[in-house]
Design a protein that fits this description.
Layout (H helix, E strand, L loop, with lengths): L1 H17 L4 H12 L1 E4 L3 E2 L4 E9 L7 E7 L7 E7 L3 E7 L3 E9 L5 E2 L3 E3 L51 H16 L6 E2 L1 H17 L12 H7 L7 E8 L4 H9 L2 H7 L6 E8 L5 E9 L1
Parallel strand pairs: 10-12
Antiparallel strand pairs: 1-3, 2-3, 3-6, 4-5, 4-7, 7-8, 7-9, 11-13, 12-13
Helix pairs in contact: 3-6, 4-5
Length: about 300
């Protein structure tokens, strides 16, 4: 009697292994494959705050998302700020103190991620990599050197959509920025940049998004990087990319002066490796202008 029982037990185990997943199990497996947690490295904002964010992407369910900012020191690294949210995205800020920081994030389903550590000097844009012709890292954003337009001093009104007809790229203000960029590049022995329609689409889209939602960052509020936006605009290939942004300058000359007075932005403009540019400018409801330059080598 023992032998038949053993055979039945083995058959039952094999049947259980071979049984197909139920619809609920399949949905859970698909969710697990799609859902990702990401976290940004800490950097210093224009208001001299350490800032980072975390997000859950591709997740159909709601889950607690927790993020921590840690300071790298001898011994155990202390958590200097933490927070949690069920909204799928969370930003943390704290007063800046010079040091080396990194961020970690996880959701309750156990998807831990960790940013790389960066040294922050508590100057605007610190913690952002120096631009490189082969890197896909944004450069720091300049502090506006000109006040926002006032009712008595109206700002120019750039086009808020892609130009039509004739195959032209950009508005008059955007093309003036391109002209000024090429004027500066000529002084440094670099060839002129062509105004690329796909890079212009990415640049204008980011300026318009910042103007509409009232933020100022290389990272979109949905978590996209400038490379995500460039690829979404249809730009393929390439061997180097960079982005400059600015807010508040009222003319192409003023925004170019801001960028050329910043070492990181100037390095992008004067990088002879790049041969393409896209410029986008958009205005918010108060009349403040948001400017974006996207560069590429192809």
């Amino acid at each position: 009697m023992r032998r038949p029982l053993g055979v039945l037990a083995a058959a039952a185990s094999l049947a259980a292994i071979a049984a197909p997943l139920s619809a609920t199990q399949a949905a859970a497996a698909s969710e697990a494959a799609r859902c990702r947690v990401s976290v940004a490295k800490p950097q210093v904002s224009d208001t001299l705050k350490i800032e980072t964010w975390a997000a859950r992407r591709g997740c159909s369910n709601s889950a607690l998302l927790r993020i921590r900012i840690l300071r790298a020191v001898p011994g155990k690294d202390p958590v200097v700020k933490s927070g949690a949210s069920r909204k799928g995205r969370l930003t943390l800020t704290l007063a800046c103190e010079p040091g080396t920081y990194y961020a970690t994030a996880t959701d309750y389903r156990g998807r831990p991620v960790k940013s790389r550590a960066v040294r922050l000097t508590c100057t605007p844009g610190s913690g952002t990599p120096t631009p490189s012709p082969t890197a896909t890292s944004p450069t720091p954003s300049p502090t506006p050197t000109s006040p926002a337009p006032s009712p008595s001093s109206p700002a120019p009104s750039p086009t808020t959509s892609a130009p039509s007809g004739g195959g032209s790229v950009g508005t008059a203000e955007e093309n003036e920025v391109v002209r000024l960029v090429n004027e500066e590049r000529a002084k440094g022995g670099c060839s002129a940049l062509a105004h690329d329609p796909q890079l212009r689409t990415a640049a204008f889209g980011h300026s318009a998004d910042m103007a509409a939602k009232g933020y100022f960052s290389h990272t979109s509020q949905d978590g996209r990087s400038f490379m995500d936006r460039i690829r979404a605009a249809g730009f393929t290939g390439g061997s180097g990319w960079a982005e400059n942004i600015a807010k508040g300058q009222r003319t192409p000359a003023q925004v170019m002066q801001s960028w050329m007075n910043s070492s990181g932005h100037r390095a992008n403009i004067m990088n002879c490796k790049y041969n393409l540019i896209g410029v986008g400018v958009a205005k918010d409801s108060s009349g403040t202008l948001y400017w974006t330059q996207d560069f590429a080598a192809r």
